[in-house]
Amino acid sequence: MASVAAGYLPILLFLGVALALSTAFVLLPMLVSKATGSSNPYADKLAEYECGFPAFEDSRAQFDVRFYLVAILFIIFDLEAAFLYPWAVSLGAIGFGGWLAMMIFLAELTLGFVYAWKKGALEWE
Amino acid sequence: MTAFFANYLGYDAGWFVATIIGILLIALPLMLAVAMIIYADRKIWAAMALRRGPNVVGPFGLLQSFADGLKVFLKETIIPSSANRGLFLIAPIITFTVALLAWAVIPFGPGMVLANVNVGLLYILAISSLGVYGIILAGWASNSKYPFYSAIRAAAQMVSYEVSIGFVLVTVVLWAGTFNLSGIIEAQRAHIFGFINGFAFNPLLFPMAVVFLISSMAETGRTPFDLTEAESELVAGYQTEYSSMSFALFWLGEYGNVLLMCALNAILFWGGWLPPVDWAPLYLVPGIFWFFGKILFFFFVMSWIKATVPRYRYDQLMRLGWKIFLPISLFWIFLVSGYLMLTRYGV
Fold it and tell me: Which ranges does the record mark as transmembrane (chain A) (predicted)?
């Protein structure tokens, strides 16, 4: 087990501890409020929040398409960043050729970025 | 610590006990720190508005957060009848778990790190991306108008600034040549003129330090970028339907993330546990004090900004992220890598 994966074992344990802690934080107060009698749900209390009157519209209504655009652009640029990381740590090893190749890739991506900008994908009025 | 327990329990069990203790030594003080930092935030904010802030519970009001916590703990957990019960309860669990989890790789001092993994920075990036899920699940599961809009806004905002944060990290990694956080700190030793520690003092990297500081505020939804809980339009944002400890978990998670971002600012650009100047007497102060001092400094800066700068509009926020920070950080990758090719690696 003295491999790379062994270094991640503490993180796995940490995940367990953190999950246990936060689950306890969510469930314990529910039990406590049952025990102390402060739990007293009724229909009006459990209604969804709307400034003082019954909600008149489905809450999962349409929303602006630009949020989708942001999500799509994010995928492109985040993937690009994922390409950049291994390149960044090994820049010394891959030399000028490696650097140039990435610069060409970045230039192409910048073209895409300029296109998205000109098309107005980044406009929020 | 492992060796100490291994003497009594054998190696595997000793390692296990030592690791669990290490985890609790991070997680419990972190929760304590979050409670105190909420108090500090309120105190700083009050002082800048010429108010007193919390001053009733305990000396100087120091126990205010604990009183709040106890009160919230004893409250009834309200699950709206139209909500998706399972997801509704899972959302705060995800938020808080993720906020704790990132601390597993943070080096508090030389060798003081729970999991010294080689791709520590990548791990933090991955974990902080997961934070979006807690928020968007909270908004969706609440099945209520304001949480839903807030969650969508929050997701788009976090995602936008993650892009520029990702590029800023590339410039740091280029210079340090490693993803290991301790390695990045060591790379900053005597970085400028042979005696100043910290990438931020490098004129080429200083703009990235500024971009990272502002992006980290946007990423954690701090004022002036707190559009996710703009009370004038969205009530309380994605937490609107939450009550009791589930509500508190969002708070704990949020402030945990703020502390994490302060720590990242300190680690990536300001030398982490190194003193600002590479001068022997300064090393007599343990590294952990320098590190905590820097975290507190950045937290103070964030509170300061919160108290002075008005909230952005959503279009301004998106413009800053996509049209200013993204092109700048993209260009800086070219600049930094080009400079390194010319000087360090020789074309």
Answer: 6-28, 67-88, 94-117
